Hints:
The structure holds two protein chains of two kinds.
Chain A: E1 4-5, E2 10-14, E3 19-25, E4 32-38, E5 45-51, E6 56-59, E7 62-67, E8 72-77, E9 86-93, E10 102-103, E11 107-112
Parallel strand pairs in A: 2-11
Antiparallel strand pairs in A: 1-3, 3-8, 4-5, 4-9, 6-7, 7-8, 9-10, 9-11
Chain B: E1 4-6, E2 10-13, E3 19-25, E4 31-38, E5 42-51, E6 54-57, E7 64-70, E8 73-78, E9 87-94, E10 103-105, E11 109-113
Parallel strand pairs in B: 2-11
Antiparallel strand pairs in B: 1-3, 3-8, 4-5, 4-9, 5-6, 7-8, 9-10, 9-11
Amino acid sequence: DQQVKQNSPSLSVQEGRISILNCDYTNSMFDYFLWYKKYPAEGPTFLISISSIKDKNEDGRFTVFLNKSAKHLSLHIVPSQPGDSAVYFCAASRTGANSKLTFGKGITLSVRP
Amino acid sequence: DVKVTQSSRYLVKRTGEKVFLECVQDMDHENMFWYRQDPGLGLRLIYFSYDVKMKEKGDIPEGYSVSREKKERFSLILESASTNQTSMYLCASRQTDTTYTEAFFGQGTRLTVV
């Protein structure tokens, strides 16, 4: 049972335009959501997160939106740059000292120059 | 600067070998994790540990075991390596004394079983 879903395996956008990466979850107990970026042959690096008490969090070119009623979150990258080309993973967690991160399958973003 | 270090970037092992993947973190984190990444399958949790000598199975523990004798070190063991364990293995650690924290990952170990 996949609790975190990234239904689109890939996305291609033009440099300078907006990239929108989507993520859905099924477990209503999740209250903390994260996005990670991963280049080939490297470990994932943390990008941005949001807790369930918020509906938006912004950090430079990256904004994450959370719609709790729809169990949906999205990552917006504006403007997209070629260096943003990578695999992006959505992850979710529950409050608690020993909670784990549950990841989606990832989306491969390609930003065309 | 936080650091999670995995002992090897690339490993090639033979079927049936016992394989040890080592991970060390310098952040005094309580939680440590082992994931594997496969194309089209994302990051899947193998095992995690929430304290020294404490461990819990993740989603795909079959064929693996773990050891956590010291807080900073978490080892993944493949008792008898098989070709379907060829994968990218990722170790992570996470602080737990605050509610909302991210996990930090190592650089990954690309394991090939031949």
